[in-house]
Amino acid sequence: MVIIYYSKMASSVGGNGYSDVTRVLFCGHYWPASTIYTKEYLQNYPFIQVDEVGLEHVPDVIQNYHICVVKNKCIDSDIIAKATKMKIIMQYGVGLEGVDINAATEQKIKVARIPGSTTGNAIACAEMAIYLTLGVLRKQKEMDTAVIQKDLGLPVGETIFGKTILILGFGAIGMEIAKRLRPFGVKILATKRNWSSNTVSCDLDGLVDKKSGPEDMYELAREADIVITCMTLNNESVGIVDHKFLSALKKGSYLINIARGRLLDYTAVFNHLESGHLGGLGIDVAWTEPFDPEDPILKFPNVIITPHVAGITEYSYRTMAKVYTCFFAMHKVTSHLPIMYLLL
């Protein structure tokens, strides 16, 4: 759905000499392509000023901006209270768990994100889930060691064919994962809070072999050889992959996470890797980011990690940058009331 609304931006004079400049704040220097591509597409819109500020400096400057793109910055009520000119707080992609939406609402600040199904983000994340799954099955770290040691024919990996895969969270990403898994000859299980036709945008016949709500996740875990988490992080889902869930898995099962790091209980995952009950772990997201490369969990030979790049592709990021360009600057009418497009 596209909602069009008008908002009067505070009159100011930017460094480009234009009055009524809309100032956009990108929080932090991680995921640099987000800022680079957005600035590239905004070159013909001199009345839009985009700045990238280090995470630690955001609270000191946020009062100067009309739009905030949070990335991995936590925007709490204290920061929002300082954002006196703010009209919109946005995420470059999906996931708004770092924004105090209630505090923003009280300040009459809109909060927005771009659905991953519209930009290629969901597809990119699904591809990464497959990549990590194959990586742990074929023992990526041990293969790297074999190359260094000039060995051949080792390690002996596993095939994805014939496996039972549980997708925790059958949203846009979960659906794209299932579509890509089906040709591998696997059995697909999935959980979702609401399976009504209004919340599922594809025909499930032939795509999911067994579906249920989160309350049945332990029962489904007993059948799974591989679990892929792609749930939304909220108060209910923090640490949902815990000792009870991991204990329900078959010995030697694999765990993949391309959603949010805190969905997994660190201690439970570590202990199940140490005991050998968990056969391998592939993660694109971690409990803290950037993750400590010396963390003990990364010392296990059956753990592989990527640096939160599941949704980061040339296609997805350029598509998002184009959407933001429209969002920031599609129209500028004579009354200096920018038209903003809010994608829900």
From TrEMBL:
- Domain (D-isomer specific 2-hydroxyacid dehydrogenase catalytic) spans 39-320
- UniProt cross-references to SUPFAM superfamilies, sorted A to Z: Formate/glycerate dehydrogenase catalytic domain-like, NAD(P)-binding Rossmann-fold domains
> What family name appears in the similarity comment?
Belongs to the D-isomer specific 2-hydroxyacid dehydrogenase family.
What is this protein's record name? D-isomer specific 2-hydroxyacid dehydrogenase NAD-binding domain-containing protein
Q: Which organism is it from?
A: Aegilops tauschii subsp. strangulata (Goatgrass)
UniProt entry keywords in alphabetical sequence: Oxidoreductase
Q: Which CDD domains match?
A: 2-Hacid_dh_11
Q: InterPro entries per the record? A: D-isomer_2_OHA_DH_cat_dom (IPR006139), D-isomer_DH_CS (IPR029753), D-isomer_DH_NAD-bd (IPR006140), NAD(P)-bd_dom_sf (IPR036291)
Domain D-isomer specific 2-hydroxyacid dehydrogenase NAD-binding per the UniProt entry, residue ranges: 132-310
